[in-house]
Design a protein that fits this description.
Length: about 190
């Protein structure tokens, strides 16, 4: 079975398992993930926003446009990476994902990681970062890679976790723009 088929099966499983039915009922659709299933770099955000809910694709709104700009600045082609979120339905009014919503999707996210087998996971935002690094303080820890062990297909694999600010943070706080651009260049160096 190809990685594409495994990812399609996982997406179906989320729908069949009726993960977070309350969240699903108010969302337009599941926003599973997008990109290269053989990616060395996996970006993981928090949850879809309005534009993502409409298109079914992650990071297509204003934050997605800035993400594209950062990828270009780091000389990374969006077609070469895989992008997803922890929570795969849009929370109402773009509120933060709740702890029980994040934990409901966590096993599916781990399966996505196991299928893709990235070398680097860049977490986008505090919620995503703290899912992997529980003691994370985004203002102090952004741009500092940490190696974590995962069991993938019965083997222990090391994956670099790189916590980054969420691209939307730069839209609300212009002073974070250069920080995010510089942090993104670390992704390129790590590969």
């Amino acid at each position: 079975m190809t990685k594409e088929q495994k990812l399609a099966d996982l997406k179906q499983k989320i729908l069949i398992d009726n993960v977070t039915p309350e969240l699903a009922s108010q969302a337009t659709q599941l926003v599973f993930g997008d990109g290269n299933p053989d990616a060395q770099i996996m970006l993981i955000g928090e949850a879809p926003g309005k534009n993502e809910d409409i298109t079914g694709l992650p990071f297509v709104g204003a934050a997605g446009k800035f993400l594209d700009e950062m990828l270009n600045g780091a000389m990374i082609d969006r077609a070469d990476i895989y992008i997803t979120n922890i929570v795969k339905y849009r929370p109402p009014n773009n509120r933060d994902p709740l702890p029980d919503e994040k934990s409901a999707f966590w096993p599916y996210l781990l399966k996505q990681i196991m299928i893709i087998k990235p070398k680097i996971i860049a977490t986008l935002g505090r919620h995503s970062g703290q899912a992997f690094l529980s003691s994370l303080h985004i203002s102090a820890d952004h741009g500092k890679p940490v190696t974590q062990k995962f069991i993938i297909e019965g083997k222990e694999e090391e994956i670099i976790i790189l916590p980054l600010y969420h691209p939307a943070a730069a839209l609300y706080n212009g002073s974070l723009r250069s920080t995010l651009i510089n942090d993104f260049k670390i992704v390129r160096k790590l590969i």
